[in-house]
Each structure stands twice: as structure tokens, then as C-alpha cells.
Design goal:
By secondary structure, the protein is α/β, with parallel strands linked by helices. The chain has 8 helices and 12 strands. Helix 2 packs parallel to helix 3.
């Protein structure tokens, strides 16, 4: 029998921990809990979780500090679950190593979907260089993309941008991260430049560019490929 994936919850709110315990256990996960940052750091080392759900408003230390300490050695996914909803807080968390960010109150279905995506990504990329997303196929080896089996004309920059987002399916990538990865450090403040390229890509890969299903905007933060 395959042992269940262990998820560590670091949150000082007992009601939130109980809700998560019930929800995650019902979906086949094993749960570990911590109510403080210190406990969370200790349990992350001892319980070997496949994913950590971390609150930012902890009683003994700021969750962002805990996140930074975890990222000194913990390489698996961390999802922030917090009442803090400002763009600044979200961007700081993502830039400091969080894989995803949900604000309270949250929908359990959405959290479960984000968990599945994060765990799937953490198990490493598929050996196949072909990524399939419905009618869109991306060939990473040959730097080509097809929509409904028709070759899409993409510039090298457009392909690099599309591939970066697709390889991180379901994960929010900040503007600065995308700009650094695709264009280099000299472009990390050129968010308008990025918007132009995203708009161009949507015209080429979305059935309805005005209502994108692949290249989704996280307002003020960045972009997410897929749901």
C-alpha cells in the first residue's frame, strides 16, 4: 500500500487547522500540525512533509521569516494561506520562495487543486519534452507550439515566455521573476513590456483572448498558466 503524502500545516488558528485536517484527511493526505513558527520549523525537519501550508501571522515570529528559514534547506512546495491580501505581501512571499498564495477565507476545492499541482510539480518535470494542454501542444525540444495541430508562429522570445509559464503550470510567477528569466536582470522593472508580450501570446494560443483560460493574470502580481 502506498503511504499517504504528509502535509504540514503551520497556523495558529485552531479552527483553520481543524478545517484543513478534515478536508485534507478526507482526500487521502496525512496531516502534521504546528501552531507557531518555531514548532513549524522543527516539524518540517522531523515529519518530512511533501508540502507545507504556512500562515504569515504567527504568534512568535512573522511567517515571512519562517518562509525564508525554510527555504535555506526545504526544497518542496510551500503554499501561503493568510488573511494578508495586499499585493506587496503576496509578491514578497512569492519572491521569497512560496509556490503559491491563497487568502483567507478560502475555498477548499481551490486549495486542494493548488496542492495537487504543487505536489505534481515537485516530483520533477516529465521526461517527455512535449507538453499538452488541450488543443495546445508545446514541444520544448524543438521550440515549437501547435494549436489544434496547426503550427503557431512564435518569436524566440514569445516561445521562451510561453514555455516558462507552461512548465510552471498552476504556479503564480511574479512580473519580476518572468522578466528576469526571459529577458534578464536589466528588464525586471519593465512590466508594461511583459504585458505587451502576454497580449500577443493570448492572440495566438487562446480561443478567446479577452477571456483567457491559459495565460491568466494575477492582478498586480504576475501570471499563472492554467487554473
Amino acid at each position: 500500500m502506498v503511504s499517504p503524502d504528509n502535509i504540514l500545516i503551520v497556523d495558529d488558528e485552531l479552527q483553520i487547522r481543524r478545517l484543513l485536517e478534515i478536508t485534507l484527511s478526507a482526500n487521502g493526505y496525512k496531516i502534521s500540525e504546528a501552531a507557531t513558527g518555531k514548532e513549524g520549523l522543527s516539524m518540517a525537519a522531523t515529519s518530512q512533509p511533501v508540502l507545507i501550508i504556512l500562515d504569515l501571522g504567527l504568534p512568535d515570529t512573522d511567517g515571512l521569516t519562517v518562509l525564508k528559514k525554510l527555504r535555506e534547506w526545504y526544497l518542496k512546495p510551500i503554499i501561503i494561506l493568510s488573511v494578508r491580501s495586499s499585493e506587496e505581501d503576496i509578491v514578497k512571499a512569492l519572491d521569497n520562495g512560496a509556490n503559491d498564495y491563497l487568502t483567507k477565507p478560502f475555498r477548499t476545492g481551490e486549495l486542494l487543486a493548488r496542492i495537487r499541482v504543487a505536489i505534481r510539480q515537485s516530483k520533477g518535470p516529465s521526461e517527455s519534452p512535449i507538453l499538452n494542454f488541450g488543443s495546445l501542444t508545446i514541444d520544448l525540444a524543438n521550440h515549437t507550439a501547435r494549436m489544434k495541430n496547426e503550427l503557431i508562429k512564435l518569436t524566440s522570445t514569445e516561445f521562451s515566455l510561453l514555455a516558462l509559464l507552461a512548465k510552471n503550470e498552476g504556479r503564480v510567477l511574479t512580473h519580476q521573476y518572468i522578466l528576469k528569466e526571459v529577458w534578464g536582470m536589466g528588464y525586471i522593472e519593465q512590466t508594461q513590456y511583459l504585458r505587451v508580450f502576454i497580449a500577443q501570446l493570448r492572440k495566438k494560443v487562446e480561443d478567446n483572448p479577452a477571456k483567457p483560460k491559459l495565460l491568466n493574470t494575477e492582478s498586480g502580481i504576475g501570471y499563472r498558466f492554467g487554473s
